């Protein structure tokens, strides 16, 4: 085992300063622990690309009920989380309680959506079936061909960029130490995670370490084999359009649809931004925006809301979702003593940020894994560390 002299030491050392790492750093500092975050660009990460749909009900997948409960728990605390952030920092997070309308464009979509509605009803979730006419009454910009829809009153939205900025500021105000450098090696001493070596050569240590480095979490050199499964990068391309003020209301709520088997969503922000997402591409650590990706998004969005072609297109970008082997997050202590995981949130990183922050802070402060986190234990993938 490596022997080394301690550098700066805090109670908790967080590797990764995206919204997952910053959220839990903030909550942990609020519990009186000293916290350090290492990241070359804290406040960056996938949340800066994401549309920020908070949609545990409309994005529900069959067989993912534990994830649904976690998503609903996070959604329920979102308004307070953002209010608290704004009170602490003076910064707006772009949280909007708009609700979501999921619509069907053809007979196959309608059959799929009505299956989803039946599933919602079996689970006692609040979603209301609408005819095409009723859906268009709610959102007059929808294409005349829309055949039906589901109105989900509690699936909302937040602006991931504003949220990232506010979390970074909240961490600074709460006394979190930020090391703007890359963690290049995990330091293990006496079979316990102890710290990291930074790209600057400096070593920082912590009583407990949290690995929140998204799709690069499992790649940290020095991490013993078998502690974390591979977290795969799943690329999402996304577009940002602007609704000129003269247009008046364009869309009033999140709109989603399945178009040709692909999930499409349009998220209208209060400031006039309209986000259209997202592709789902499994091809490694590539964030190139492609003509094909942009074409698909515009083609499908145009089918759903023809008026989008009039709007200025202001940005195209791509981010990487961190996908675990079962697409659910890894939350809690790992097989390596001293190392806690908060990663693998896949399509739900923005949604799950508040509940992840609360659950991991609770574990770090008390040593007890909260019941809500138990189904997401990293041990479900563990092999003996070597
Ligand atoms: N949750 C939206 C996405 O991952 O595209």
TrEMBL record:
Keywords from the UniProt entry: Membrane, Oxidoreductase, Thiamine biosynthesis, Transmembrane, Transmembrane helix
Pathway it works in: Cofactor biosynthesis; thiamine diphosphate biosynthesis
Keyword Oxidoreductase belongs to the record: yes
Gene3D superfamilies named among the record's database cross-references: D-Amino Acid Oxidase, subunit A, domain 2, FAD/NAD(P)-binding domain
Membrane-spanning intervals of the chain: 12-29
The FAD dependent oxidoreductase domain, residue ranges: 11-362
Gene Ontology terms: biological process: thiamine biosynthetic process; thiamine diphosphate biosynthetic process
Enzyme Commission designation: 1.4.3.19
Pfam families linked to this entry: DAO
Enzymatic reactions: glycine + O2 + H2O = glyoxylate + H2O2 + NH4(+)
One cellular component term from this protein's GO annotations in UniProt: cytoplasm
Superkingdom of origin: Bacteria
Entry-linked InterPro entries: FAD-dep_OxRdtase (IPR006076), FAD/NAD-bd_sf (IPR036188), Gly_oxidase_ThiO (IPR012727)
Coiled coil: none
Keyword Mitochondrion (UniProt): no
Single GO MF annotation: glycine oxidase activity
PANTHER family: GLYCINE OXIDASE, SARCOSINE DEHYDROGENASE-RELATED
Protein name: glycine oxidase
Source organism of this protein record: Kitasatospora acidiphila
Gene for this chain: thiO
